[in-house]
Amino acid sequence: MEGKHATAEEVARAAGVSQSAVSRAFTPGASISAPLRARVNAAADALGYRPNAIARSLITSRSRIVGVVAAYLHNHFYPSVLEALSRELQARGHQILLLTADMAQGADATLDTLLRYRVDAVILASVTLSSRLAQACRAAGIPVLLFNRTTRAPGVASVTGENRIGGRAIARHFVALGRRRAAFIAGVEDSSTSRERERGFLEGLAEAGLALHGRQVGGYRYDGAAEATRQLLRQRHPPDAIFAANDHMAIAAMGVVRHDCGLDVPGDLALAGFDDTEPAAWPDIALTSYAQPAGEMARRAAEALLSMLDRPALTVRRQVVAGRLIIRGSSQAA
Fold first, then answer.
1. Residues 6+ apart with CB under 8 A from 205
2. What is the tally of structural domains in the chain?
3. Are 168 and 102 contained in the same domain?
4. Can you give the pLDDT at residue 60?
5. Segments of the chain with pLDDT less than 50
6. Domain span at residue 23?
7. In this structure, which of 21, 57, 273, 324 has its CB flanked by the most CB atoms within 10 Å?
C-alpha cells in the first residue's frame, strides 16, 4: 500500500535472519559479519526499509543526538568546527542538533530545548557554562563538554587549542621582527579563550622586557574590532604591531589600517590573529595566525563525549590540542 513503511520483521523474513541481526546491521559499531550485513542491507533496499530512529530511542533511552550550542557563527572558525564535529559524531552513529545562543546570555536560553529533545550530550562552543545549566544537565545525566572554552568549575570536560602558548608565540614573533609597541584587541572580557591568549601575549612581551603598548576590546565582532583599531591608532604613539584575539577581528583591523588610515601592512604595522581560518590564507589577506586544528579538536571532543556516555563514572579530562604559528605577509614581507 502506498505510503506504508516496511518493518524490521519484514526485512528479517526477506533476508532469512533474526530481527536482532537486522538491528545490529543498522547499529554503528555493532558486532555483525560483513556478509550478513550485506544480506540485510540488500533486503532492506529491496523493501525500502529505513530504521526508525525515534522508535529506537524509546527502546534504548538514547536519542543519539548531541546538542551543540554556538554563538557568532560569522567567525569562520566555527563553521569549520561544526562541519568537523558533525562528521566525527556521524561516524559514531550520532547526529548534531545545532542551537545558536547570544554571547551575552550564554547557553541558558537553549536549556529547555536541549532537555525537550532529550539530547544524549551537550557541546558548548564559544559560549559560557552557567551553574544553572551545569546543574540541570547533571541532574538529567547529560554530559557537557566545553569546546574552545574552559571553566573553573570542577568536573567539566573541555577541548581547547594552545591559547596561552599561541599568544606567547605571537609576542615572540613580533619581538623578533623588532616591534616594540605591541597592542592587543581582546574578544569578550569573560571569555577564557581571550584571557589565555592575552596572558600568553603579555608573557612573551615580558620576556623581552616589554609591556603592552595598548589594549582595546573588540567583542569578537567585525565592527567592534574595527573601532578598537581606530582607537589604538589615535594614540599619540600608535602601535607598530597588533595581535587580535581571533582572525575575524584581525581582518577587520587590517581593513582599518590599510583603507581608513592608509598605512602599510606590515611596513607600518604588523598584524596577527588566531585560529588560522580559511580567509587568513587568501592572498589579499595573508594573515599571520596561530593555527587551531579544528578537525583534531572535533575528533577528541567526540571521543570524550561518547566515553562519558558509555562510562558515566569516568574522570573527565581537560584536553589541549597543539597548534602552530603560521607566518604570512601581514607581519613579515615576502
1. 171, 174, 175, 182, 211, 212
2. 3
3. no
4. 45
5. 1-3, 53-55, 57-60, 334
6. 8-51
7. 273
